[in-house]
């Protein structure tokens, strides 16, 4: 039963990731064709990012209150309807810019809880001993989907336009919904039996936030993740202008760069899986973050297609050494009944700077050029990673973590007793 649940969840995440690669490339390409404006492209990502951040905060308890599988299916269905808007209007020859912005906003709002809810299910179906490998396999399948998707999306967009790519995105969401509906029925969430009240709901949001108060090292890690994501979204939001204006290539090259990044990420996941348990987590995570920043900075200084392929591949290899270790730490340290809301807060913190990065990237690229943007986007995480090596609060992340989960469970049990007493 657990094995079926894990592989069903794995299929759902892979399908949605594969579809997202088509939809994202297609909508960015359409915005650029309609407007020719880098600011408009940044605004598209901003339009998606703001609802995502708000829902992750205000909706964080829902992943623990509701049936997690049914919640994911509902969110995927709304995202399917969101993609259907620009797809249908495009087929009718009536596509306007606001259709793309509306689809991005609705899709962003739904994606806010989709992945955090999926991550909340993993510890319950994988087991603590296999947790690192379970997250690595999920990251690997996401990487494989992202490896195949951009290349096909780029070729399809270059040959037939962006609308067929949106159609692929819609089909993937439909398949993900079907997969979710065939998963075994999960256990009823503890909080579902409790009657709803605004004070209780706010307390549940606060419980998600309190995890990072108990573990300040994890808060620092997520702040660094937010800086890394700001850099990444700034670079990839301007990838279409980079390909067209700096490299003077077409959409197939955009797909090739995305594929090289995903191939590097898949290679990094394989290395992490082969290494197994990593005890020197602090230096490995900070080293990977700093390394990615330096590579992006060099990418901005060297306007060469072969170097760009090498840069995105190398940055992709380094990515899992930060991301998978962070996921594994959260899976171990967070109690099962708090997984949904803590993961929502985790992604909220990690993605908090993405809207700023997306919009600012357009402004910087418009004023100073895409290459200057890449240089600045690379130096920021590199400097932050260097400064973080000086923080003593991160040292407890190294070595054996057996004492930390016990502290977390004790804090969680205390919270539950207080709630029952009330």
Word description of this protein:
Helices cover 82% and strands 0% of the residues. With 422 residues, the chain is an all-alpha fold. The protein is globular, with a radius of gyration of 21 Å. Residues 402-422 have low confidence and may be disordered.
Give the uncertain stretches in residue-range form: 402-422
Q: Residue-averaged pLDDT, rounded?
A: 81
Total helix count?
A: 18
Oligomer: single chain
Q: SSE order, as H and E?
A: HHHHHHHHHHHHHHHHHH
The major beta sheet can be summarized as: none
Shape category: globular
Structural class estimated from helices and strands: mainly alpha
Computed CA radius of gyration, to the nearest angstrom:
21 Å
Keywords:
422 residues; mainly alpha
What would you say about this model in short?
With about 425 residues, the protein is mainly alpha-helical.
